[in-house]
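Interim report, section 4.2 (structural modelling).
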Amino acid sequence: MEPFIQTFTNLPNIISFSDALVLIFGVGLGIVIGALPGVGPLLGVVMAIPFTFHMEPVAAMALLIGIYQGGSYGGALAATVIGIPGTPMSAATMLDARPMALNGRASEAVTLSTLGSTIGGVLSALVLIGIAPQLAAIALRFGPAETAMFALLGLTTLGALSGGSPLKGWMMGFLGLAIAAIGLDPVTGVERFTFGSVYLAGGITLVPLLVGLFSISEVLLQAESPIRAHDNTSSAAASLKAFRSLIERPVNYLRSGLTGVFVGILPGIGGVTASFLAYRMALGFRKKGDPAFGEGNPDGVVASETANSAVTGGALIPMMSLSIPGDPIVAVLMGGLILQGIQPGPQMFLQHMPVVQGVFAIFFLGALILLPLGLGFIRGVSWLLRLPQWGIMVGVLMISLIGTYAVSRQILDVGTLVFFGLVGYLLRKANYPLAPVVVGFVLGPIFETNFRRTVLISQGDLLAYLTTRPIAMTVLAVVAVSLLLPLLRRRSPATAVVEEA
Amino acid sequence: MLSARTELVAGLVFTVLIALALVMTSRIDLAFSSDLETFSGPRAYPGIILGVMLALNLAVVTQQLLRIRSGETGGGLPVLTGRTRLAAAVFATLVAFFLAFEPVGYILTMVPLLFVAALLNGTRNLVAAALVAVGLSAVCLVIFRYGLNTVLPEGILGIDMVF
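Predicted structure of the assembly:
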């Protein structure tokens, strides 16, 4: 509790007014960057690194963490208004936020996303400040077996993201796994499905896949049959309705936030898993009178956004305590600290305590600032909804193409984007869900690499090895239960009666 | 809901594609020939994924066959409509952009792409489409080239000549 009390009692001494201004700028910039399909918070943080070189450590971290927090939230705006997840994490948000927007509840969906992001961020900040070293010690016990099992747990969400046909959901998830297998084998370096191409040997990257599947396919579909989001309610009424969710759905906020924090702590699993896992959990608790999940259920938006924002604080825990970056963005943040001459890890807590407290305070304030800034962006959303549809689509097309090109500066990434745009268009026409492709693609390499490492460590006796890893066995049991439970529920006569009613 | 026949065709196309991928999987080299390697090697993992995918796809195909057999062909949404050619035209424009982007340059490819996309997405106002195409391209150039320091292809015109 000591760091917790120290941080809050010394807040004015830890961060200056100018640090706070940098933080506000960072969060605002992050929201804009996160909302641009293909750009995302990773690119934003990378681009900001050179600007931090001449800044004080706390101000530098204020800019970087602000972009990270704002960017993690900003993806929800694009997902709601134009049906394109600005970041992979917001693919789960889109499942319900987009139908809400199409039903005239765009402002409500954005307010729910803002509230979820704020609560997730605050929750993870409190955990980060309060028990970072203790939680980091748990993360140290995670080896390849545990990581593989958690990735497997993430994959169990596939059937639930199908929008009606679990078989199709699973199939699309496996399509994502198959696409992720293109390139060099992660263990032996053998080429798979590369056709001798150096570009394909590097594997398909997430940005052209994600932007192609969602953005380009949306532009193609809109050209064919325009459909647009709108707002039937005033933003004040929508905000009031969304704020009521704090009283009506507190358990969802808490459950999703804790899920996000926990997944964030685990190195290499990340926000996509957290948002889909939280979404999957929310499926079991549909409120009476709410629309079905996938048709504009507020709990779907709350679960996904709270979890993916809570990941940000969780991910900082192993980085600051153990010098282990849990995801690529945190690795860049770690680089930002090293540029300042600060080596993350246990020594950081002894040698640079003011910076540690500064990061804690920035993170907490950043999560709070997200609320007014996010609500301010609702006006922007309303303005955007009044633009002609062709104008929005032209803007989406341009940002998608140049955003994708800017990440790697490879023209073949633009080709990949166009190709997956066509794939996404055809899949959507044939009624196949796209969200499971993202889950499979993100979790595939994590699962494969760690599972195969586990097999190698076990020297061929996988089962015997797993029995020596209680955390992995527990997660495996949860995987089994989550796969079997829907089948058992379907067979139960009592459930059938409830469903009929 | 899509018609059962449409979904059946989609399922059959998937079957062919997955089968082709499985054939390619069988040709992936093995790094080592030990038993351990064949269980978890570079060939086994994609093989398992594609095998499961094929099984899932066959289940989807069977579902559609049962729908057709029960007379439920569903007259739902047609996949190909008269407006599909608009989507096809946008796609063709994107392919042309991809091929011309680096050799011709940012300005001379982005402006025509956005202009054509605006027309294909429903506006009949040529002046508005042209203004939006030029305006957005210029804003994007400033943000990416001068704000984010991203080098965009200069091509035959050269970007610095514009500003």
